[in-house]
Design brief:
Helices cover about 35% and strands about 20% of the residues. Helix 5 crosses helix 6, helix 5 packs parallel to helix 7 and helix 11 packs across helix 17. The chain is elongated. The strands form 4 sheets. An 8-stranded mixed β-sheet has the order 7-8-10-9-13-17-14-15, with helices on both faces. Strands 1-6-5-2-4-3 form a 6-stranded mixed β-sheet, sandwiched between helices. A 3-stranded mixed β-sheet has the order 11-12-16. The protein folds into 2 domains: about 140 residues, Leucine Aminopeptidase, subunit E, domain 1; about 325 residues, Aminopeptidase (3-Layer(aba) Sandwich), CATH 3.40.630.10. The chain is α/β, with parallel strands linked by helices and about 525 residues long.
């Protein structure tokens, strides 16, 4: 019996150490499902800058509340200002922010689109972007060129208007068998600022690129996007970008480091887990700010399986990882004067015969043990190991987690805010102020001392979930903080309600928001050398 047991043990060890066996004549696992499409998304309108509007273009005119078209009149053709004023009066158009009014046959232009903008000194960068984004969405099917007038807007507005137009025209149509070909006539931002185009390309165009990349990742179905292909997409996007280093840990490397918390989540999937780190160095010897995102490329809930309704949305459970990588892409492409690390903790949470079970105990990289009460509380598990590795590897100035983590935060805050948990006040202030500036606001939530008792385990150092559902977002944050080494400043953003927009917003067409890229970009800017 002893010999038999030894033989079985050796056979098991051999199987675990070997790659998956291929059956002759059968396609590989990656080839079993046919790729739906090899196309790219349809082209977006190019964005240009000019001192005057192109002939025959649709004119988009900012209407600044009670001031009407104000200084924008100087950019209008003769007679157009009077026609607009008459149209506003006849339609009783109040010019409130985001409201639109279309006028036709004015001064030889096919259409004049009036867009309400917050007036006077109250205008901020998000209002300018909203103006451009609202116009881009309203004129999505317009075949003619589009001219966005900036007269009457504050000095320096043009790059932000262009940025909003770039975000507002986003589309993901590469998987349609016969997509409608959208118009590709240019968007021209009309401005007297000769340097606006250069300023836009150097900065905000790169931020828009990071948001677009994150939106693409979140939208891509899980049969195409999984840990390995996520890594490949990032490598392709950053190929040739200076001052960037990409590190990828595979399962044997993570196993050697003792990262049982992350590996346990993915052990029910045939898609192997990965830890991806994108390091951008633009700030000399300053310690980096580390952005660590949850990257569950599909979350079935594992053995604690989710109900069928709405499960399709769980392809977007990697939105936190998309945000961190999108922010680093933006920083690298615009040449930020800061050091930043984007880390994606990538797994697929599936319920096969090898899956992690409720009641299992796993060990994190620094030796702490976790009793797994609920396999659907998996995001906190991958973040625990990712945080520990990031702090050991990079000794960062701060660690910020972002994740679609809990339904609890959705119930508490709805779709207006993400939840912010932090054990460092200065870091929390940077995040709150940055979120306000870019329109990705957070609401500060507590990490109450009582959560320590809620998360006690009888057999391990901590359990991953409290049964009963109360304070779910707070106890999840406590769990991550408990396993994140001190004294590193740490904050956690629970963005569970913010990954998708169910109705279009000015700079977000219905669908994936790319939430967090702009917020984290602002955080990086707060660390840039002045």
């Amino acid at each position: 019996m002893h010999i038999a047991r030894l033989s079985i043990a050796l056979l098991s060890a051999t199987i675990l150490a070997s790659p998956a066996l291929a059956v002759p004549g059968e396609p590989s696992f990656e080839q079993r499902g046919l790729t739906p499409s090899t196309r790219q998304n349809s082209a977006e309108r190019p964005i240009r800058f000019a001192p005057t509007a192109p002939t025959g273009a649709v004119l988009v005119v900012p209407v600044l509340g009670a001031d009407g078209i104000g200084a924008a009149a100087a950019q209008l053709p003769a007679g157009a200002a009077d026609a607009i004023k008459a149209g506003i009066a006849n339609a009783r158009f109040d010019g409130k922010p985001g409201k639109t009014l279309a006028l036709y046959g004015v001064a030889g232009h096919p259409q004049l689109l009036l867009v309400g903008v917050k007036p006077g000194a109250a205008v901020v960068e998000t209002d300018l972007a909203d103006f451009g984004g609202k116009a881009a969405q309203a004129l999505r099917d317009e075949p003619n060129e589009i001219a966005l007038l900036t007269g009457g807007l504050p000095a320096g507005s043009a790059p932000y208007v262009a940025y909003g137009a770039a975000l507002g025209q986003y589309r993901y149509d590469r998987l349609k068998s016969a997509p409608k070909v959208p118009p590709v006539a240019a968007v021209t931002v009309v401005t007297a600022d000769a340097g606006a185009g250069v300023a836009y390309q150097a900065d905000l165009a790169q931020l828009a690129s990071g948001v677009r990349f994150a939106r693409d990742l979140v939208t891509t179905p899980a049969n195409e996007l999984y840990p390995e292909s996520f890594v490949a997409a990032v490598q392709a996007e950053l190929k040739g970008v200076p001052n960037v280093r990409i590190t990828v840990l595979d399962e044997p490397q993570m196993r050697a480091l003792g990262m049982g918390s992350l590996l346990g989540v993915g052990q029910g999937s045939r898609r192997p887990s990965r830890l991806l780190a994108v390091e951008y160095r633009g700030g000399g010897n300053a310690p980096p700010v580390a952005l660590v995102g949850k990257g569950i490329t599909f979350d079935s809930g594992g053995i604690s399986i989710k109900p069928a309704t709405g499960m399709w949305e769980m392809k977007g459970d990697m939105s936190g990882a998309a945000a961190t990588i999108g922010a680093v892409i933006a920083a690298a492409k615009r040449g930020a004067k800061a050091n930043v690390i984007g880390v994606a903790a990538l797994s697929e949470n599936m319920p096969d015969g090898g899956a992690q079970r409720p009641g299992d105990v796993v060990r994190t990289m620094n030796g702490k043990t976790v009793e797994v009460i609920n396999t659907d509380a998996e995001g906190r598990l991958v973040l625990a190991d990712a945080n520990q590795w990031t702090i050991r590897q990079y000794n960062p100035a701060a660690v910020v987690n972002i994740a679609t983590l809990t339904g609890s935060i959705v119930a508490a805050l709805g779709e207006e805010y993400s939840g912010l948990f932090a054990r460092d006040e200065a870091l929390a202030s940077r995040l709150v102020e940055g979120g306000k500036r870019v329109g990705e606001e957070m609401w500060r939530m507590p990490i109450h001392p009582s959560y320590a008792e809620d998360m006690e385990s009888e057999i391990a150092d901590i359990k991953n979930s409290k049964e009963g559902g109360r304070a779910g977002a707070g106890t999840a944050a406590y769990f991550i903080g408990f396993l994140t080494p001190t004294p590193t400043p740490w904050a956690h953003i629970d963005m569970a309600a913010m990954d998708r927009a169910e109705t279009a917003l000015p700079t977000v067409p219905k669908g994936p928001r790319g939430y967090g890229v702009r917020l984290l970009d602002q955080l990086v800017r707060s660390y840039e050398a002045k």
